[in-house]
Amino acid sequence: MTNQNLALRAELIALQDLYISTLDSDRLEAWPDLFVDDCLYQIIPKENVDHGFPAPLILCDNKRMLRDRVISLRHANIFAPVVYRHFFSGLVFEQDGEAIRMECNYLVISTSLEGVSTVYQAGTYRDIVVRIDGELRFKEKHCVFDTSRVQTLLALPI
Amino acid sequence: MIDEVFNPQELVSTDGSQVAYEVFSSQEIYDLEQERIFRGPVWNFLGLEAEIPNIGDFKSTFVGDTPVVMTRTEDGGLAAWVNRCAHRGAMVCRELRGNATSHNCVYHQWSFDTKGNLLGVPFRRGQKGQAGMPPEFKPSEHNLHQLRVESFRGLVFATFSAETVPLEEYIGTTMGGYIKRVFHKPVEYLGCTRQFANSNWKLYMENVKDPYHASLLHLFHTTFNIFRVGMKAHCETDENHGLHSIIMAIKENQDAEAGADYKEQKIRSYQEGFELEDDSILALIEEFEVVATNHIQPIFPQLVVQQIHNTLVARQLLPKGPDKFELVFHFFGYADDTPELRKLRIKQANLVGAAGYISMEDTEATELVQRGTVRDGAARSYINMAKHQDGQTDTLITEKLIRSFWTGYRNLMGEVATGAGA
Ligand code: FES
Ligand SMILES: [Fe+2]
């Protein structure tokens, strides 16, 4: 993954930035729209990926499931209020036919109501991005996390 | 000494309906549990045979908070040993999973076979005329600490104690029957997810024996107006010590429909309020003789067998200190799953675990109890729901499984103390 196309690189960084800003500013209702309709989104521990095991923490195989997640976490699920801040680094990508494969590290710092900030999750985004009506959207987003011990619970998207 | 740490009279009422909060935070009680429970006369769940199918396969895990390794031996059998070098105590196995026919300690390279027997000691006979180990050194006296291991329907258990009754007897006929329901044919391992909670492990035991909270804490079904028609509850404990139990939500009129029309028949959504856009997450392909949406079966102290819709999990409960535990959700399917069924099992992983639609709140609740009770060790909980109707097995509005658990716990923990006339 050593693509030198700087214009595309800028676009991909902008997409990743938009993704993170949508989550961190609590605009979760807009989050599904960063995906295509028949998308694949999953959060899966790296230990499973390394061993070829499929068990995920979250797996959505279409955009409707993403919207269901948001409605559920807004209205059904009970969890302590928490703020996430996402950071990403080390972005690489390559063209794969019409699609673009992109990978980068991510880090999620969570801050509790009491004001304690901790590293909640570190991992890599392994994404497939496509262009729909001129806009880049996620066809697949795999959040492969190193922090296999999930502290307490995971309610918000990564 | 011991009597002072665990005085059953003060901590747990005989009928298990009142428990002093100290049992959730005391370091002394936690240490005593490691000795009397996890190293005592119980079988601790280590994992699935399907995790270590080939000779030399191993997995690192725990009995209580003691690190142990389970292995597949050369003769195809199972072994487990404490992961503490017989030389000077270093952890021998440093990987989570792998395959090896010998395990070498990195510190001074003592090596052990899959059963934990000592194979070799570098410089045992010295070097260039210099001394090695003393002449009386016998390798066979320096094996790793080996545990008794047995498996039941592919579930692997270990015990430290020579006193523990055989596994099948420990599980009991009733609970054995329910395990066979889920483990009725060869399984395939699908990986694990882990969840860590800042609360005492027994709060999770209470939780999986508590059908009362199901529709009150977990609001998923009610929020999406999902009504489960024709469901029958079943709650039961084992016949011996009351520490194992089962909660099932059974579909009553089983004969009529196959999985495809489950949606029409069994789930009705109101027009108002919220609706799931993709309700395949609640599909139920019928694959058991008794069709149930939920089967939650703790086998004390480290296992919860779970079938929720078509997702199958062996949950491993590991204490990590008085106020910490880890849950490992071992997902599995059947070796003969069709691709569609396998896909559904994996999709329904969304229901359970740390991000589970109908389970993520459990650790939230256990942490709230931990925080609420931290300074009130002598205060007691009130566990009386349906106490005057203890024989009832067909209700979810009961706390009888929790009471039975505490009575069994009291017996295990209090044995020496009562014997000594506490
Ligand atoms: S501590 Fe293991 S070889 Fe010395
Ligand atoms: Fe629960």
Give your account of this protein's structure.
By secondary structure, chain A is α+β, with helices and mostly antiparallel strands. Chain A has a single domain (6-145), classed as Nuclear Transport Factor 2, Chain: A, CATH 3.10.450.50. Helix content of chain A is 24%, strand content 46%. Chain A is built from three helices and seven strands; from the N terminus they run H-E-H-E-H-E-E-E-E-E. Chain A has helices at residues 6-24, 46-51, 63-75, and strands spanning 35-45, 58-60, 82-96, 99-112, 117-132, 135-145, 149-151. Chain A has a six-stranded mixed sheet with strand order 2-1-6-5-4-3. The two termini of chain A are 23 Å apart. With 422 residues, chain B is of the alpha+beta class. Chain B has two domains: 44-150, 3-layer Sandwich (Rieske Iron-sulfur Protein), CATH 2.102.10; 173-411, Alpha-Beta Complex (Naphthalene 1,2-dioxygenase Alpha Subunit, Chain A, domain 1). Helix content of chain B is 23%, strand content 26%. Chain B contains twelve helices and 19 strands. Chain B has helices at residues 2-5, 8-11, 27-38, 167-171, 173-182, 201-207, 214-217, 220-223, 262-266, 339-347, 361-373, 400-419; strands spanning 44-48, 57-63, 66-72, 78-82, 97-99, 102-104, 111-113, 118-120, 148-152, 155-159, 187-197, 227-228, 231-237, 245-251, 267-268, 292-299, 303-308, 311-319, 325-334. A seven-stranded antiparallel sheet of chain B has the order 11-19-18-17-16-14-13. A four-stranded antiparallel sheet of chain B has the order 4-3-2-5, with no helix packed on it. In chain B, strands 1-10-9 form a three-stranded antiparallel sheet, with no helix packed on it. Chain B is globular, with a radius of gyration of 23 Å. At the A-B interface, helix 2, strand 2, helix 3 and strand 7 of A face strand 11, helix 8, strand 19 and helix 11 of B. The complex binds FE2/S2 (inorganic) cluster and fe (ii) ion (FE2). Residues 207, 213, 218, 359, 362 of chain B line the site of fe (ii) ion.
